[in-house]
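Message: I would love a firmer grasp of how sequence relates to backbone shape in proteins. Thank you; the sequence and its tokens follow:
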Amino acid sequence: MAVPNRGVMSNTEWRSPIGRFIGIIYFVVLVISAILVLFPFLFSFTAGFKTSVEVFKPGVHLFPERGTGGIM
């Protein structure tokens, strides 16, 4: 007895050109969503290594300009 496919699309749909295109669209949407969700955590983590001037500097700077300074 065959095991039912519990995914978004059946195996036959995944093999068709339209199914592959839809799969790529799903993947792109998931990657963009993951970046949008994880970016604030990464920014907050790296802000702990910056000086207050670097944190409030305009633009997106994920890493400190110099070494960590106060951490030994």
Observations:
- The longest helix spans residues 17-47.
- The two ends are 63 Å apart (CA to CA).
- Helices lie at 11-15, 17-47, 52-55.
- The chain has a mean pLDDT of 82.
